[in-house]
Amino acid sequence: MSVASLIGLLADLGVDEPAVRSSISRLKRRQILHASRRGGAAGYELSDSARAILREGDHRIFRRERAALTDGWLLAVFSVPEAERHKRHLLRTALTRLGFGTAAPGVWLAPAHLAASATDMLRRLGLSEYADLFRADHMAFGDLAEKVRQWWDLDQIERLYRDFADTHGPVLTHWPAPQAGPGARRQAFADYVRVLTDWRRLPYLDPGLPAELLPDDWIGITAAEVFFTLQSRLEAAARAHVAEAIGEATAGPGPHGRFMNLK
């Protein structure tokens, strides 16, 4: 994608050109974006590692199903030498971002469906030699729903879900159904990016815990309905707006119609 395309699209979100260019420079340094040429024109594309992260994210963010108690659990047990304690912090951070809860020092757990994601993440970060993954069932003792409240901060997750529902629930009234037209496509793009940006961290904080272990009025169900309803009403129009913006940027005349390199 050209820089001009990114500048134009992010302008729809209220982001100015200097901020876009600064962000692209940071993403280049982090090797998230690579300079690329297509048909003689210069632009940027995602690196292989960035694509892998986004594929895992897509699977997680757009997953509607919750785990079932019969699925069992995934245990992560790790031990890091004191001389490499910085990797201990990295490992804890990575497991937290995946949605693991802490059952005991050095023992983390998550629904079993996260096994592939956890394995890929540990390998990608070079941490696999410090951890072992197991599948397990809770046999005894105590009430498992109460244990889950100890292992995960459900109060915080509930607050974040409620904030999401309160913020984006009213957007549903503006989109009773998908709409066409350039103005509608541009607004759909802006609304979709905003709702996706706010939603994408929630499936990591709440790793799809079984409904049987959650409160009967769990606000996460309402928040998920808001997100997936907006997705169904906005995604096609948002994609059409992006396709149109890219086409105009690559085909049109003048400096805003060419692929550009950051200097």
Please summarize what this structure is:
The chain is built from eleven helices and six strands. It has helices at 3-11, 17-29, 48-61, 85-98, 115-124, 144-151, 154-168, 171-174, 182-199, 202-205, 219-251, and strands at 33-38, 41-46, 73-78, 101-104, 107-111, 131-136.
Estimate the strand proportion: 5-15%
Count of helix runs: 11
Strand count, sense and barrel status of the largest sheet are:
4 strands, antiparallel
Report the order of strands and helices: HHEEHEHEEHEHHHHHH
Shape: globular
Structural class: alpha+beta
Low-confidence stretches: 249-263
**SS elements, strand count:** 6
Percent of residues in helices comes to 40-55%
Oligomer: single chain
Question: What do you see in this structure?
Answer:
There is one protein chain. The chain is α+β, with helices and mostly antiparallel strands. Among the domains are: 73-136, Alpha-Beta Plaits (2-Layer Sandwich), CATH 3.30.70; 153-243, no CATH class. Helices cover 54% and strands 13% of the residues. The protein contains eleven helices and six strands. It has a four-stranded antiparallel sheet with strand order 4-5-3-6, with helices on both faces. Strand 1 (33-38) and strand 2 form a beta hairpin. Helix 1 (3-11) crosses helix 2 (17-29) and helix 4 packs antiparallel against helix 5. The radius of gyration is 22 Å and the shape is globular. The two termini are 16 Å apart. The relative contact order is 0.15. Mean pLDDT is 87; it is low at 249-263.
